[in-house]
């Protein structure tokens, strides 16, 4: 679901993204969109705690992330202020995607159902632009929160790329593993659709057959524009939601809403 970040209490402790990271993302978008202009003071911690319904520790951690990104500066005894150059996005959409994937990985546990080198199905080979002799690493995981299944994630990586992955990082999301291995990831094409649980997915997620799911597919490319990962994820509709921060742009008589990643 898409929600505008300016609503009250926009964080959700049922999501797999940590509360501090939700607060950080919302404040970052407000800064980038100009809602908090360069040089202006951010609300004090007590005010932010009340707005988001979180603890001071959560707000402090979110603020620390903003400081690390160079978006805000702290002045002892005066408060926290938006950096003068904060309006220009410091990161691109792929950075934000990686950060979100890292946050989900940090907030969830993982059960590895399988990890094996095999001959890819025709559709997978086509997505990864592989010839008939190439093989792939297939990683099949279940992500859990509070011991309950959240998502089934199936990732395919060309064998030539998989050789660079550290086996010790097997429990991390594949995009994070690629980044840690130094694979020069440059862009990704991602799509989210609604679907229903088939018997296999239903059993893995402990839900009824036909229960609603969010299906996410992602094709990741390196800096030579070659596919390096094809991923399909199935998220439980009762435990996962997608939020997009939107900014309003108006030029003359034309009015548009754009996501933060655009």
Considering the chains and any ligands shown, give keywords for the structure.
single chain; 262 residues; alpha+beta; Arc Repressor Mutant, subunit A; Chorismate lyase; 6-stranded antiparallel β-sheet; 8 helices; 29% helix; globular
Architecture overview:
29% of the residues lie in helices and 32% in strands. It has 262 residues and is an alpha+beta fold. The chain folds into two domains: 1-88, Orthogonal Bundle (Arc Repressor Mutant, subunit A), CATH 1.10.10; 99-236, 3-Layer(aba) Sandwich (Chorismate lyase). The strands form three sheets. A six-stranded antiparallel beta sheet has the order 3-4-5-8-7-6. A two-stranded antiparallel ribbon has the order 1-2. It has a two-stranded antiparallel ribbon with strand order 9-10. Helix 1 packs across helix 3 and helix 2 crosses helix 3. The longest helix is centred in the N-terminal third of the chain and has 15 residues, at 19-33. The radius of gyration is 20 Å and the shape is globular. 27% of the residues are buried. Residues 1-8 have low confidence and may be disordered.
